[in-house]
Write a structure and sequence with these properties.
With 346 residues, this protein is an alpha/beta fold. It folds into 2 domains: 127 residues, 3-Layer(aba) Sandwich (Rossmann fold), CATH 3.40.50; 174 residues, Hypothetical protein af1432, CATH 1.10.3210. The protein is 58% helix and 7% strand. It contains 15 helices and 5 strands. The protein has a 5-stranded parallel β-sheet, sandwiched between helices. Helix 2 packs parallel to helix 3 and helix 6 crosses helix 12. The longest helix has 64 residues. The radius of gyration is 38 Å and the shape is rod-shaped.
Length: 346
């Protein structure tokens, strides 16, 4: 507080009122009121740091004025003065937020001490609130900076992912566009089975990078037209783990890792890399597994032509409970998913 603190003295007796004013006037800006009503009027118009209230006044007693004064300004520090201090009076004053009370006739030193304490407490409170406001501003600023950093990471990560997917597509042109289609199909599947809406965006990101690990598989194996040898098959089956190693260091991608790792697991437990079975496989991975298979069946391969929609449906039904989650297959076949697929492939 750069300017003088303001003190309000309220007493219906002139003698004590003037005595208090004379003690405080050199150090503080002092205003006086002869009754509770006048005091409340002043408090409603002006800001005071400390009020000194007589308990016994004709129109309103000091306890009532204290209560109403705190409603006007909850930070106002109030000192009660009385000729007859009692435990019940003190208890009532403290209950309504009084700082302290003085007994008439009061000592000059006691008056100065209690007023200084009231001003210091008010200043501490205001300083504390200012610090809280500064911390809140700092926290907001940091939160914005963190969010911007996340967006920057996401932007750069998206660019990297697209570059890696393009590299995979360049190696294996038969799967060009596969990742984007699987991502699109996965979203449609998720909507068909009422997958939690707030997680669909995350699932979509997982689906688009589900095969990212193929960047670590030799191109000649990915392009091979004939049957893979056992060794080559083992190499291909490493791609989910490689994908996790690529994506793992990105913090906000952590929730995607089980989807990437387990999208080749089978519902009957005969998949890879861990041979998980049934609901041991996370729901997102079970969805991506179906979307992945649907796109593969609808695409031409060196060893076969693309299947028709009816053939794809028949294959899903045949592998229901085997390769695929039967509940998801049932929900899929009864949804509008294949109408969307039909529209997409023309």
């Amino acid at each position: 507080m750069g300017e003088k603190a303001k003190i309000l003295i309220v007493d219906d007796e002139l003698g004590p009122r003037e005595a208090l004013r004379m003690i405080l006037k050199d150090r503080y800006e002092v205003r006086v009121a002869g009754d509770g009503t006048s005091a409340l009027s002043l408090l409603s118009r002006e800001k005071f740091d400390v009020a000194i209230l007589d308990i016994k006044m004709p129109d309103r007693d000091g306890i009532e004025v204290l209560r109403l004064a705190k409603e006007i300004d909850r930070d106002l520090e109030v000192v009660m003065i009385t000729a007859y201090a009692t435990v019940s009076t003190a208890r009532e004053a403290i209950r309504h937020g009084a700082l302290d009370y003085l007994i008439k006739p009061f000592d000059k030193t006691d008056v100065e001490r209690v007023v200084e304490r009231g001003i210091a407490r008010r200043l501490d409170r205001e300083t504390g609130r200012q610090r809280i406001r500064e911390l809140e501003r700092t926290t907001d600023r940091l939160a914005r900076q963190v969010e911007k950093a996340k967006m920057d990471i996401q932007h750069h990560y998206d660019g990297t992912v697209k570059a890696l997917i393009a590299a995979i597509d360049a190696v294996d042109h038969y799967t060009r566009g596969h990742s984007e289609r699987v991502s699109n199909f996965t979203v449609r599947l998720a909507e068909a089975v009422s997958f939690p809406r707030h997680q669909i965006v995350l699932l979509q990101q997982a689906a688009i990078v589900h095969d990212i690990g193929k960047i670590g598989v030799e191109g000649r194996i990915l392009r091979k037209r004939g049957t893979l040898t056992q060794e080559e098959l083992q190499e291909v089956r490493k791609h989910p783990q490689i994908g996790v190693e690529i994506v793992g260091p990105v913090p906000f991608m952590a929730e995607m890792l089980p989807v990437i790792l387990h999208h080749h697991e089978r519902y009957d437990g005969k998949g890879f890399p861990e041979g998980l079975k049934g609901e041991e496989i996370v729901l997102g991975a079970r969805l991506v597994s179906i979307a992945d298979a649907v796109d593969a069946m609808l695409s031409d391969r060196p060893y076969r032509r693309a299947l028709t929609l009816e053939e794809v449906k028949a294959e899903l039904e045949r592998e229901s409970g085997g390769q695929f989650d039967p509940q998801l297959v049932s929900a899929l076949l009864s949804s509008e998913f294949f109408q969307h697929v039909s529209d997409q492939i023309g």
